[in-house]
Amino acid sequence: MNTERAIVRARTALDQWFVLVVIVLLAVSLFGAYATYSSAAEQTATETKTVEAWSTTGGFDHGATVERENEVFEVGSELTDRTTYFTSISPALEGSFWYTYHAEDGDVDASLELERVTRSVDEDGEEVVEHWRVNETLDTAAADSFEPGEELDASFSLDVQETANETDRIEESLGGSPGTVETTIVASVSKTGVVDGDPVDRTETYELVVDTDTDVYTVDGPAHEERPVDETEVVETERESVLPAPLGSTLLFVVSLLALGAVVRAKATDRLAPPEDELKRVRREYERETFDDWISRGSILADEEPDTRIELETLEGLVDVAIDSNGRVIETDDDFVVVDGETLYAYAPSSGTDEDGEDDSGGPDERGSPDETDGDDSGVNDDDSERNLVPDDPTGGDGDDDVNDDGTHSGDGLDTGEAADACE
């Protein structure tokens, strides 16, 4: 019964505050949609990554011709791409440097310079201290509109023995030389133009180190070195998540949207507010429960019924008679009665009329005994009871009537506010 009253009150409140309810539900659904979208968007993160855009490749080819007779190699034979050569039989190191680049599209102006660098250096931890240097240009090359896949090359020839002699002369002229003397073939490649739609202006160097300290000389340098050209780009990555979006915001959006649709549909079909007969029935049932302490279930034998019968318009009035006569209200199958001597006071719920004068014959078919707690008993529905006991609004009212333990009444009547309190 309390649940039924709560439902009636809720429906009445939704009908009375329909516009405000629609606005609130619409705002909640929009908030849920925004929260769901924002949560889903947060699962996609923006990161800056370094990617390989294009690449360059360069390398040295080298060799030496046997110039003197020996017991191993024939004179005139070629020793190629070795790490060690013999100074006495093959003093001249000859070779070349080649260069290319790989990209989807490119148009650059390229220049290549081969240079011999002899210098004296000391290493102090990670720092290299250079004491003196001698440079000599060996060869140059250039290419206009240098495209991907094309090759730019230059050659060199280094007399290792003469270079060693030159080093001795420099040290002698300096009166000695600190550090270590090293000889390097340096290839410098400069490019200016556009590669894959991006402007390019860069210089790369490759080194071939020649060590001439002993009767042999060693060569160390790249034969085929590929260098990627990296670029940074902004990419979107998806974060791993158990749910496609937080469950709370999704449920908030769906539930509020469904509730909004249900309320609007119920209002449009006149099913939002409870029917008037249902309101009256709830009022009567509540009134019956309110006076339950003064009502007993029973019957009056026909031969014992007093001759004088007075019809009362409200159950409240009948309860007042029972209080004044120190009796009880007897609930029969058809009405409520109080016997006071030779007079029978009666109230029949079906005899009341509503405010429009229409007959209100509603009410339960069965009335529970006063010991039952389900409250499915019939009550009054006449004008006075609707006005004083149960106002038209089941969600609240101004009445304050109740029956005290001493049999007196407080207030002017029972209202729906009390009925609402009973529902809570």
Automatic annotation (TrEMBL):
Domain of life: Archaea
Record has Hydrolase as a keyword: no
Keyword Repressor attributed: no
Pfam families: DUF5305 (PF17231)
Signal peptide: none
InterPro entries: DUF5305
Region (Disordered): 347-424
Bias (Acidic residues) ranges: 353-363, 371-385
Coiled coil: none
Name under which the protein is recorded: DUF5305 domain-containing protein
Source organism per UniProt: Natrarchaeobaculum aegyptiacum
